[in-house]
Amino acid sequence: MNRDLKEYNLMVIDLTENVFVHTSLPSANHAALRSGFVGYPVNPRWGIAKLQAWRTGRQWREALAQGEMVVRSTDSMLVPVTAQQEKKENPRTTKHFPFPVWAKQVLNYSHTA
C-alpha cells in the first residue's frame, strides 16, 4: 500500500458504480459524499459533517466536469489531473517494494570488505 495512504487511514469507496476514490471521511458520511457527487440535493436534516461531505462530493463532480480531475482507466480511481500526469511520467520499473538506500550501502560495503 502506498505510504501516503497508510499514514492518513484512507479507504477506497465507490462514488458511483464505476468510480472509486480514496477518502479519510468516516463511513457514516459516505452516503452524503456520494449524494453530492451524483448531484442529489442536500438533506436538511444533515449535520455539519455530512453537509461538508456532500460539498466535497459536489466539488469533485464539478472538478471532473471541468477537467481538473479524471477517472483513471486502469483502476477507475478519481484522481487530480496532476497525479495522473505524474504517474505517466514516472512509471514504476519494478513491481517489488523499493529497496532502501541504506541497505544497498550496507550490501556494497560488506561485498567490498
Task: Please provide a written account of the structure.
The protein is α+β, with helices and mostly antiparallel strands and 113 residues long. The protein has one domain (3-112). The chain is built from five helices and four strands; from the N terminus they run αββααββαα. The strands form two sheets. It has a two-stranded antiparallel sheet with strand order 1-2. A two-stranded antiparallel sheet has the order 3-4. Helix 2 runs parallel beside helix 3 (48-66). The chain is globular.
Any descriptors?
single chain, 113 residues, alpha+beta, 48% helix, globular
Summarize the structure.
By secondary structure, this protein is of the alpha+beta class.
Oligomerization state of this entry?
single chain
Helix run count = 5
N/C terminus separation: 36 Å
Report the portion of residues in β strands: 15-25%
What class do helices, strands and sheet pairing give? Answer: alpha+beta
Fraction of residues in helices? Answer: 40-55%
What is the number of domains? 1
Give the strand line-up of the largest sheet: 1-2
Rg on CA atoms, Å:
19 Å
Unreliably modeled segments:
none
Describe the sheet with the most strands: 2 strands, antiparallel
Residue-averaged pLDDT: 81
The helix/strand series, from N terminus to C terminus, equals HEEHHEEHH
Q: Compute the number of strand runs.
A: 4
* Principal-axes shape call: globular
